[in-house]
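Tutorial handout. Part one gives the primary structure; part two gives the three-dimensional structure as tokens.
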Amino acid sequence: MERFFGKLENSLKDGTIIKMTLSKPVLKNNELRNVYIKPVLLKNNKMYQFVYRYERRDETKNFDAAQMMGQVRGLVPEVFQNVSLFTLTEDVTLLVSKKGKPTFMCKPVKEQRTQDLSHDHEKQRLIDPSKPWWYLLGLTTREGKVMADMQHKFKQICKYVEIVDGVMRQTKFDGEIHIADMGAGKGYLTFALYEYLTTLYDKIIIMEGVEIRKELVLKINDIIEKCKDARPCVSTIHFVQNSIDEYKPSKLDVLIALHACDTATDDAILKGIRNNAKLIICAPCCHKQIRREMEKSGKTDAMTRFGIFLERQAVMITDAVRALVLEYCGYKTQVMEFIEIDNTPKNVLLVGRKSDKPVDKESIAKK
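Part two.
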């Protein structure tokens, strides 16, 4: 342990530290997931920028060298078990086992490295608000600034893109990736995902928005045409007027349905299953069908006789059934929070990833 801190102290004294990462929290339920540290130059003073990455937010603080050592000693090994230190000349690693035993590793580097002392004043965004489609969609000004009343929507879009990207990176795709966004509406999320994937993925993206309202489809396709020079020439984005039930894709790798009303979420899940989609990503909306069955059954107990409790119970049962249906049809399911609850109460994301593992259909059917 002290060998590691000796290396860290020396890198601060001789100015060779490039960056450092603290990872693997001791407590699995700790909201603080990682800490990223790098030297920065603030008003001609060398400081050390700490980015504390929590489950739902990032916090940034700056410390001088002495404070930096104190912060790291307070976090390792009590909070984090893994530390990676990168300097101009060495890669230094500290691994702490569950029993508290430290392992120290040090490897010299041969390549020539440089330091980046710039300070990140601007928060890095997953999508670029200066793209012309965001102005035409009504989210930004002509100058590419997100409008005040659209800040929450933009935050929601960025969070959505981050989650979908994380899910897609765990899935193997061959060649082109065909994506259908069911009930695409005004196209905010369709454009966001298209922009993000075409920027960071080395595959051709074929994106199709499915929307039943003709006026919206015409408007979005007109925006797509106006922005053709700002889009990659090999990937495509297009909207079609159709219902989810009647939509017939030529190929479907990823199906997305966010807040499709009434049983439209279920139509979308079925469409993904029947087209053997590798990924089905839904933000479920309605629970009316299950709620009606609960009310007609006459078995509403002390919990569900209150309207708000009945509604919440109906939501949980409906979405649990949807997850089980996906599992029954060969999908590994995952349920996660979509965005913070203060932005919208409809904050559950249901993900189904196609699996080759055998399925115990009888057991799932009983559930």
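Part three, for discussion. The chain has two domains: 2-108, 132-366. Residues 2-108 form one domain.
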